[in-house]
Specification:
The complex is a heterodimer of chains A (372) and B (541). Chain A has a 7-stranded mixed β-sheet with strand order 6-5-4-3-2-1-7. In chain A, strands 14-13-12-15-16 form a 5-stranded antiparallel β-sheet. The longest helix of chain A is centred in the C-terminal third of the chain and has 17 residues, at 274-290. Chain A contains 11 helices and 16 strands. Helices cover 27% and strands 22% of the residues of chain A. Chain A has 3 domains: 3-126, Rossmann fold (3-Layer(aba) Sandwich); 129-154 and 216-329, ATP-grasp fold, B domain (D-amino Acid Aminotransferase, Chain A, domain 1); 156-214, 2-Layer Sandwich (Dna Ligase, domain 1), CATH 3.30.1490. Chain A is of the alpha+beta class. Chain A starts with a strand and ends with a helix. In chain A, helix 1 (15-30) crosses helix 9. Chain B folds into 3 domains: 4-170, no CATH class; 173-392, UDP-N-acetylmuramoyl-L-alanine:D-glutamate ligase (3-Layer(aba) Sandwich); 403-533, Protein-Tyrosine Phosphatase, Chain A. Chain B has helices at 4-12, 20-46, 53-62, 68-81, 89-98, 116-139, 142-151, 153-171, 173-186, 199-210, 226-236, 255-262, 278-281, 284-292, 308-319, 368-380, 385-392, 422-438, 464-478, 490-499, 513-523, and strands spanning 189-194, 216-218, 243-247, 267-270, 300-304, 323-328, 336-340, 346-351, 354-361, 403-406, 412-416, 450-454, 481-485, 506-510, 529-533. In chain B, strands 2-3-1-4-5-6-7-8-9 form a 9-stranded mixed β-sheet. In chain B, strands 10-11-15-12-13-14 form a 6-stranded mixed β-sheet, with helices on both faces. In chain B, helix 2 (20-46) runs parallel beside helix 5 and helix 2 (20-46) packs across helix 8. The chains are: A alpha+beta (372), B alpha/beta (541). Chains A and B meet through loops of A and helix 11 of B.
Chain lengths: 372, 541
């Protein structure tokens, strides 16, 4: 009997946030108004192992690592693969027949296409971005370039390398990891030389860093986008920064409130002019198409109250952005049901071997002949 | 005397043992063994399955006045009487089933957790108990041996612990091998921290100072033994980790050497030596020896040299060619020195006598010596001193170590419940004074009260009475009221209070911390300060 699974955790700095999102989603599925049933909770550890855990666990069960009573799973990325329980010494392997999976992983391989590709190979239907949507969303440079090329307003963004030249815009700058979540490893620096120095000093910049002008005058505005049953935008939200010392929404502001993203302070809907609101919504719709949004994504903008620029996209946002859907209010179980329906009905890949009909092989002659 | 021999011969005559009533005794003793077993198995679990713990606690609990010694006497007399009248063993069974009064089956603070390890121990224990009873049934005196089995439950639990220890070692080998393989693959810089106290705090400080510069993973709280460290590596050491900060605890010699064999440190830290777990080590010299096992494999060694024994270790390590980093909370010429500036929440940091930062605000519970060790580690890891300086500003407080908070009633609370050593207790009293003094005066200028809630300190071996008496005297000198929890250290603390004649200090005795909290809620008002010093789990009398 095919079942629904919730996948969370993963080797990423936002592992703990992902645990919260996953547990919330599991509750949403089994709670009132939800599709019911017995969702499986699949926990991806920081070290890359897979376990099935009780979906009714509380967050503190994960404090020490793998919760007690978890069953170790193995994952095979191939046909007839997927998740299975190799069983104890008696060795009877039991496959988990998963009809649709809710992917609740943030950052790292859970949100950059790695997990998506593995699930594609295993033939498991899943919610959220496809491989390419996830990869584009995690690459700040690529996303910024796509959006700018489409004519949408963005801050200029350039790559920082050890041997590169200063960017064509003046400092101070904000330096961010090119790949990664939106709240870890960001630095504000005065000049390009300092930015280059940060490349070796900041471990999160190891795989690439982007640099933008630092604009403390701009504030954050965020919009949720979901694509099933049809494209729908949420209200615009203005998150409130808790700490006064840094001017950027950082990890502690967003997540240490206790409920993950759902608990952070916010102004929702944001008190902005209707022109700005319309501008943001139009941009969000265009970005949904450009970035291949699937599932629910959160698009982050920066604004001075009148103009706006596109900042980033989160293709698997914290708490699946459930708190954004207020006008009209959409209950969390409905969001989850729609995500699962989309997972089943909008395919993420279509491998095709059409065209490989043997012609090339037949006319190849001998391989040795080709090499000699 | 001459009457005794025929009496004993009479007793050994096996025909009396197969009397119907004797089987009643066997059955009831067998049944009584089960709740008794649950009780002492829980104690063994809370005491980390160390052999000897159950018996030690049994001796403590059966001495708790007013009722327990009497009950024990009754049980023993009945056991002796069962030599002649087997049915007397029923009384022993009843006493053993009821157990020492006060030691509950389920437990309030720490319930019995049926982990795999406990289940294995329970099975071994049950087998041993059954062996005693079965021996009795086979050889003759069934009810006598059943009574013995009932009385000796704590001893048998200890024996089972002894038997299962090598078994557990073999079972954990699988996880240790996986952990060693993972360490060989990830190859982080390993920072290993040990010490009688300060390990967890120092580990937290290191992680905080290093985090902006390197990807760092620290072992979660209380994962400091063989099984815990292996689990931390297997479940938390992600592939890209550059620095792994491991807390290494030990209850006896050889344990740290064993850990360092498969998790060899690159940087080894010893934070302090004190009479902690003195009961199990025997002497403080053996503590020094056990802790120093951590230094063998490391090239960089960080030692808190205010303790002369650690200063000696530092010199010896230097002679062996290791890079030694001496840390101090008093001596400015040390490699790293952290000094408190006047009042207790600001510190200044000096590197080789050069000032790094001055008068930085840190949370109440941060100990200068721990911070100095952490700074030394960060420097070895090539963290820029200016980064260290800026990270000090938002150093997080350590859970339950002098954590300050204000209750809704306006009472200031200092939570030092995770502290269990004499040096920390002295620091806590000093912090109590400073915190109380810093509060605004009460509205009606009534005198502010400083209250200490404590059960005293445990596991100090032969020093336990003296250290608690000294603590009692310090409380009498620096506080206005003591709420004494439990009976474990009652005599010692009261003796200490009696030593200080000037200044009236009130004393209230309660059985459990819950009652102490109720007392605090009922009697203290805005402007008063209360220090919760140490907290004993409920398997302590």
């Amino acid at each position: 009997m095919p079942e629904v699974a919730v996948i969370f955790g993963g080797p990423s700095p936002e592992h703990d946030v992902s645990v919260l999102t996953g547990l919330q989603a599991a509750r949403g599925l089994t709670g009132p108004g939800g599709p019911g049933g017995n969702p499986r909770a699949i926990f991806w550890t920081k070290t890359g192992d897979w376990y099935e855990v009780d979906p009714a666990l509380e967050a503190e069960a994960f404090l020490e690592g793998v919760p007690r009573g978890a069953t170790k799973l193995q994952f095979v990325a191939g046909p007839d693969g997927g998740f299975s329980d190799p069983g104890g010494r008696l060795g009877r392997t039991r496959s988990l027949e998963i009809d649709a999976a809710l992917v609740c992983c943030h950052g790292g391989p859970g949100e950059d296409g790695t997990l998506q590709a593995a699930l594609d190979l295993a033939g498991i239907h899943y919610s959220g971005p496809t491989v390419s949507g996830a990869a584009l969303g995690m690459d700040k440079l690529a996303f910024g370039t796509v959006v700018a090329a489409a004519g949408l307003p963005t801050l200029p963004r350039a790559l920082v390398t050890a041997e590169g030249v200063p960017p064509p815009f003046p400092g101070p700058y904000i330096v961010k990891p090119r790949f990664g979540g939106s709240s870890i490893g960001i630095d504000v620096v005065e000049d390009h030389a300092t930015a280059q120095a940060r490349l070796t000093a900041n471990p999160h910049l190891r795989f690439g860093a982007v640099i933008e002008p630092f604009r403390p005058d701009l504030t954050d505005l965020q919009v949720g986008v979901r694509t099933w049953p049809s494209l729908q935008l949420s209200a615009v939200e203005r998150p409130i920064r808790a700490s006064g010392s840094t001017d950027i929404l950082d990890y502690r502001d967003k997540y240490v409130a206790g409920e993950g993203m759902a608990g952070a302070n916010r102004e929702l809907p944001a008190q902005i002019s209707s022109e700005l609101d319309k501008g943001l919504r139009d941009a969000a719709e265009r970005i949904a198409a450009l970035a291949g949004v699937r599932g629910v994504a959160r698009i982050d903008f920066l604004s001075d109250g009148e103009q706006f620029v596109v900042n980033e996209i989160n293709t698997i946002p914290g708490s699946l952005a459930r708190y954004l859907w207020v006008t009209p209010p959409i209950p969390f179980p409905t969001l989850l049901t729609d995500l699962l329906a989309e997972a089943r009905q909008r395919p993420t890949h279509a491998y095709s071997a059409a065209g490989a009909d043997g012609t090339v092989l037949r006319s190849a002659g001998s391989i040795a002949g080709k090499l000699g | 005397m001459s009457a005794l021999v025929p009496a004993l011969a009479d007793a050994v005559d096996s025909s009396r043992w197969h009397h119907g009533l004797a089987w009643v005794t066997v059955a009831l003793c067998g049944a009584a063994v089960l709740p008794a077993g649950l009780r002492w198995l829980r104690v063994a679990q809370r005491e980390h399955y160390l052999a000897g713990a159950a018996t030690r606690f049994a001796m403590r609990w059966w001495r708790v006045l007013p009722v327990n010694p009497a009950l024990l006497l009754v049980a023993t007399v009945a056991a002796a009487a069962s030599l002649w009248w087997p049915i007397a063993g029923v009384v022993t069974a009843l006493v053993v089933a009821a157990g020492p009064l006060g030691l509950s089956l389920k437990g309030r603070t720490s319930a019995l957790a049926w982990t795999r390890r406990l289940r294995t121990l329970a099975v071994v224990w049950l087998v041993l108990e059954s062996a005693v009873v079965v021996t009795g049934v086979i050889t003759g005196p069934a009810s006598l041996l059943a009574v013995v089995a009932a009385l000796a439950v704590p001893l048998v639990v200890d024996l089972a612990c002894l038997v299962t220890t090598p078994l557990e070692h073999r079972l954990s080998a699988h996880f240790v091998d996986a952990a060693a393989a993972r360490l060989a693959r990830v190859v982080p810089t390993v920072v290993a921290i040990t010490g009688s106290y300060g390990k967890t705090s120092t580990k937290g400080h290191v992680a905080h100072l290093v985090r902006p510069t390197r990807t760092v993973v620290a072992t979660p709280a209380s994962f400091n033994n063989r099984a815990g460290l292996a689990r931390a590596v297997n479940e938390h050491l992600a592939d890209g980790t550059e620095v792994f900060v491991a807390e290494m605890g030990t209850y006896g010699p050889g344990e740290i050497a064993d850990l360092c064999q498969w998790c060899p440190p690159d940087i080894a830290v010893i934070t302090a030596i004190g009479p902690v777990h003195l009961e199990r080590f025997g002497s403080e010299d053996r503590i020094v020896e056990a802790k120093s096992e951590i230094l063998t494999a490391a090239d960089d060694v960080v030692l808190q040299v205010d303790d002369p024994r650690l200063a000696d270790l530092a010199d010896r390590a230097h002679e062996q060619g290791k890079r030694v980093h001496r840390c101090s909370a008093t001596d400015r010429s040390a490699d790293v020195c952290v000094l408190r500036s006047g009042d207790s929440t600001r510190v200044s940091v000096y590197l080789h006598a050069t000032t790094l930062v001055e008068d930085v605000e840190v949370p109440t519970g941060v100990q200068p010596s721990n911070l100095a060790c952490a700074i030394a580690v960060a420097l070895v890891l090539d963290v820029d001193p200016s980064v260290i300086g800026s990270r000090l500003a938002d150093l997080p407080s350590v859970d339950h170590r002098l954590q300050a908070a204000k209750a809704p009633s306006g009472v200031m609370i200092l939570d030092d419940t995770y502290n269990a050593n004499p040096a920390g207790a002295a620091e806590a009293l000093a912090a109590l004074g400073v915190t109380a003094a810093s509060l605004d005066p009460t509205a009606d200028s009534a005198p502010r009260r400083r209250v200490v809630v404590t059960p005293g300190m445990v596991e100090l071996g032969t020093r336990q009475f003296d250290e608690n008496r000294r603590f009692g005297a310090a409380i009498a000198a620096q506080a206005d009221h003591l709420v004494l929890v439990g009976t474990t250290n009652r005599r010692a603390l009261l003796a200490g209070i009696a030593m200080v004649t000037e200044g009236a200090v009130g004393v209230t005795t309660v059985r459990h911390r819950v009652e102490a909290v109720e007392w605090v809620r009922a009697h203290l008002t805005s402007g008063d300060t209360v220090l919760y010093e140490n907290d004993l789990p409920d398997h302590y009398p």
